[in-house]
Every structure is written in structure tokens, then in C-alpha cells.
Design goal:
The protein has 523 residues and is α/β, with parallel strands linked by helices. It has three domains: 152 residues, Glucose-6-phosphate isomerase like protein, domain 1 (Rossmann fold, 3-Layer(aba) Sandwich), CATH 3.40.50; 163 residues, 3-Layer(aba) Sandwich (Rossmann fold); 165 residues, 3-Layer(aba) Sandwich (Rossmann fold). 41% of the residues lie in helices and 17% in strands. The longest helix is centred in the middle third of the chain and has 19 residues. 57% of the residues are buried. The model has no long low-confidence stretch (mean pLDDT 95).
Length: 523
């Protein structure tokens, strides 16, 4: 029998609820302890990290102070009506969801693909304000974007003072980016230092670009405020119901039900995968294109539909019968999923606030940029596809599907110009009957990349790279965007190969032709 939890306009309906898990969290006093920010909720080993990462529980209250300042900033920059967000992972995914759901235009630049970066640079440059978002202040992709835009403004004839007006920097107090921003003459917004990147939707990272794009961010804060009291409750606690259900399965298929929320799956994917995928455990989110797409159901898969507010007695599946449906306003959705992930982490016995394996690929990338890429010769060539780690495209598919709990497709390509390659996910899911994820590189490195290395070692990995027809230099650096993109792909291959799991790379010597060829081969 379905159980329904309602709070703050948000409804979570769970079919066949896991009462034992839910009751275990109640017995551990998890709702009260989370609401009171008890860092020991996840065990003694997590205390040091959790103590400085629980600000998200009530960050919406402190974020109120940003609202009038952001309104003034938007008025001051009213002539700059093209908002570009240069950020990765938690710095970019929440604003993208907010803008999509609220119907506002926001260009999210979270790539090192030279074609995609060049296209952004050429779009309404003199009407552009660039929001440079980095919690650490050292994110290589974001720093590269900042350099490229700065040079583009100067090349367009702006003085340094004029160029500085086109930048808004969001970073943590004490970040090295603060000094850089000061030198640029950029406007600076300091973020909540006690909130980790993937929990930062309702901090300056989520709100600054959204407000500049025209979103009324105070509405999001109101929605979170209305939902927040339920986190401490032993009954009618939607986050506890959702977290309990998530913790019972190894995979969570995330499906939009068509009732008004757009893009939440990509944000929740990072939140859940990076928070839980460690110590050989975790929950792997699988973002499904439509309710009827392949992969929404299966052994070990929890089917979760998400959408806007609905009546509590209505199940909005959009064509699929969900195990869990989550419906409500976006501000409440953010806080609900964050709390649910924290509850699931307690059940799994992991620290949901660290990311111990994320730096591995980063370090490999830095080493390759210093010493050059390893020499790699293809093991086969078919038309516009060069293969590594298999004897043919058909053999690559066999290897990926032969021995895996899931398949991860990782495309280091242009997510707009090469968008059709995402069709590989459903075709592989149909062929193998197992969960298949799709991620754009290097974007996924700040998301499912942690799960790939730290979660259950049952994955098989397909990396897709493409020839660069026209490269783009990174100003002030000895490498280009194309070289950086290739180094990131090679660095991640090294990290994955060290785990002994199936890994195939398909390099497209002609991107359009190679994508067409690959899709035809899979179908």
C-alpha cells in the first residue's frame, strides 16, 4: 500500500515503503539530529568533515541577505542581458535547473570542448555578464573560462576596467579567486563556507546566476522555508520517506513526469552519486530521458518520478508507474533531496559530505598536462571510429555488456553540437537490459565520477572522444582547450583502468559521421 508524506507543498508517495529502514532512522533520532546539525549522525569518522558541511540545513535563512543585493546588482547590470555561468558540478547544475524550470535564459559553460567554448564566446559578447563560480577558487575548467572571456573582452576593445564590469565572481571566503577577482575589478559575492558544492543550490552559487537571469529567488527561499520544519519530524517527513526508499536500492532511475520541473535529474544525479558512491557502496542515479524510455525499470532499480506540485492523492508518473513520486515546488525539492541524501548516507554507513576519489582524475590530468599524453594506438578502425580496448564496435558492445552491473557512457564532446550521441544510452540499455548512465565530460567528473571510482566496482565504461577541428588557446597557459579536454579524458581513463573494470574508448575522427555510425551500429 502506498504511503504519502506531505510538507510545505511537497508530496512524496512511496509504493511498498521500507518500514524497517524508516523506523531505523527514527530509532537513531536522525530527523532531530539532522535538523540540529549533529555531525556525529554519520559516525565518528565523519564528524570533522560534517561539522563544517551542514550549513545547507538552514542556509536558505542566511541567503535572504542576498536578495536585495542581487536585485540592485541586476539593475546595475541591466544592459548585460546575456548571463553566462562558468562553473562545474554543484556550481552550475542547480542554476541550470532553476533557469530551465522558471523559463529564463542562462548559458551554462561547464565544458572544455573548444567548439562549445568558442560558440559561447561568440554569442552577444558585449551584452554578456560572466558569473565565475568556484567554491575552491582553483577549478581548472572555470579558471580557463574566465581567462578566455577576459581575453575576448580585451580583444573586443574594452579596457581592463570595462572588462571587469562584465564579471561577477562567486567563491568561498579565503579563496584564491578573491584576489584574482579584485585584480580584475569584478563584483564579488562570497558564498556560505559551511555548505559543500553539491548541497549549494540555495546559496550564492545557485542564487546569483539565477537572479541575474531574472528569477525571483526569494520565492525559492520561501518554498524551502515552508518545507524545512518537516526535516525534524517523525511523521509527515517527505525527506525521510525518500531517503529511506533510496537507501534500499543500488540504482535510482530519475524521470521527469512532465508536470513542471525541468532538469532536476542532472542535479540530483550529482548530489546522490557523489555523496553516496564511496567505500564500495552507493546509490547510482540513472537519468532517464522520458517516462517511456528504456531503463526506468529493472532489477535493483528504484523508479523515482519528479515534478511540480500535484494533489496529494494523485500519482504523476507520466507513463510509468513509479516506486516513488516526488512532487512540489523547486525550493522545497532542493531541500528535500539534500536531506534525503543525508538520511540515505546514514543508512549506508558512509559520510555524505566528502568526495575522496574526485581528485584522482584531476591529479592525472595535471600530470598529463605537464608531461604530455601517453602514446595510444587504436586497436581497430571502422569508418570514422577509432577503437581502443576492443576489436570492433560490436566487440566493444559485447565487452561492455558481458560483465557489468551498470554501463557508464562518458562523452568528451560538445553537448549541444554533438547532442545526438546521448542516444547511445538508451540503445545500450535496450541491448543489455541493465542500468546505463550517460555523462558529458568533464562535467560528470564532478558528479558520477566519484561513484565510478569509489562506489561498487561493478561498472563497465565507454569513453567517447572526438577530433578537434579548430582548437582554442587558454590565455596565459601553455595548453589549449583541446589539449585540456584530451588530458582530462586520458586522466580519467588512467583512474578507471587501475580498477580492472572493462573500459573501451571510441574516438570519432569525424564527429558527425562517427556519431551517426555509432548509433546505426547500436540500433
Amino acid at each position: 500500500m502506498d504511503e504519502v508524506s506531505v510538507a510545505g507543498g511537497l508530496t512524496v508517495r512511496v509504493a511498498n515503503p521500507p518500514h524497517e529502514v524508516y523506523d531505523g532512522l527514527i530509532a537513531a533520532n536522525a530527523p532531530t539530529r539532522l535538523s540540529e546539525k549533529d555531525p556525529a549522525l554519520w559516525g565518528s569518522s565523519a564528524v570533522e568533515e560534517a561539522r563544517i558541511r551542514l550549513g545547507w540545513v538552514d542556509t536558505f535563512e542566511r541567503s535572504r541577505a542576498l536578495v536585495p543585493m542581487l536585485a540592485e546588482l541586476r539593475d546595475e547590470l541591466s544592459d548585460l542581458d546575456h548571463v553566462v555561468l562558468a562553473g562545474m558540478g554543484g556550481s552550475s547544475l542547480a542554476p541550470e535547473v532553476i533557469a530551465l524550470t522558471m523559463g529564463k535564459r542562462l548559458t551554462v559553460l561547464d565544458t572544455t570542448d573548444p567548439g562549445q567554448v568558442r560558440r559561447a564566446l561568440g554569442d552577444r559578447l558585449l551584452r554578456t555578464v560572466v558569473v565565475v563560480s568556484s567554491k575552491s577558487g582553483t577549478t581548472i575548467e572555470t579558471d580557463s573560462h574566465r581567462r578566455a572571456y577576459w581575453q575576448a573582452f580585451l580583444d573586443a576593445g574594452l579596457t581592463e576596467a570595462e572588462a571587469g564590469r562584465h564579471f561577477v565572481v562567486v567563491t568561498d571566503p579565503g579563496s584564491p579567486l578573491l584576489e584574482v577577482a579584485q585584480q580584475m575589478g569584478a563584483f564579488v559575492v562570497q558564498a556560505d563556507p559551511e555548505v559543500g558544492g553539491r548541497y549549494s543550490a540555495l546559496t550564492a552559487f545557485g542564487l546569483v546566476p539565477s537572479a541575474l537571469a531574472g528569477v525571483d529567488v526569494s520565492e525559492l527561499l520561501d518554498q524551502a522555508d515552508a518545507f524545512a520544519p518537516s526535516i525534524a519530524s517523525a511523521s509527515d517527513n517527505p525527506a525521510l520517506a525518500l531517503g529511506s526508499a533510496l537507501a534500499t536500492r543500488g540504482f535510482a532511475a530519475l524521470v521527469e513526469d512532465g508536470s513542471g520541473i525541468q532538469g532536476l535529474g542532472d542535479w540530483a544525479e550529482q548530489l546522490i552519486a557523489e555523496s553516496t558512491g564511496k567505500e564500495g557502496r552507493g546509490i547510482l542515479p540513472v537519468v532517464i530521458e522520458t517516462p517511456t524510455s528504456v531503463g526506468g525499470k529493472g532489477e535493483g532499480v528504484l523508479t523515482v518520478t519528479v515534478g511540480g506540485s500535484m494533489f496529494a492523492n494523485h500519482v504523476a508518473g507520466g507513463g510509468v508507474e513509479p516506486d516513488v513520486s516526488v512532487n512540489g515546488p523547486l525550493g522545497a525539492q532542493f531541500l528535500c533531496w539534500e536531506a534525503a541524501t543525508a538520511f540515505a548516507g546514514q543508512v549506508l554507513g558512509i559520510n555524505p559530505f566528502d568526495q575522496p576519489n574526485v581528485t584522482e582524475s584531476k591529479n592525472n590530468t595535471a600530470s598529463i598536462l605537464d608531461s604530455g599524453p601517453p602514446e595510444e594506438r587504436p586497436s581497430f578502425v571502422e569508418g570514422a571510429i577509432e577503437g581502443h580496448g576492443a576489436e570492433s564496435v560490436a566487440d566493444a558492445v559485447r565487452k561492455l555488456l558481458a560483465d557489468s552491473g551498470y554501463v557508464a557512457v562518458m562523452a568528451y564532446l560538445d553537448r549541444f553540437a554533438d547532442a545526438n550521441v546521448a542516444g547511445v544510452r538508451e540503445l545500450l540499455a535496450k541491448a543489455g537490459g541493465r542500468p546505463v548512465t550517460f555523462g558529458w565530460g568533464p562535467r560528470f567528473l564532478h558528479s558520477t565520477g566519484q561513484f565510478h571510482k569509489g562506489g561498487p566496482q561493478v561498472g563497465a565504461f565507454l569513453q567517447i572522444t572526438g577530433a578537434v577541428s579548430e582548437d582554442l588557446p587558454v590565455p596565459g597557459k601553455p595548453y589549449s582547450f583541446g589539449v585540456l579536454q584530451a588530458a582530462q579524458a586520458a586522466g580519467d581513463r588512467q583512474a578507471l583502468a587501475s580498477r580492472g573494470r572493462p573500459l573501451v574508448r571510441l574516438h570519432l575522427t569525424d564527429r558527425a559521421a562517427g556519431i551517426k555510425q555509432l548509433l546505426q551500429a547500436l540500433s
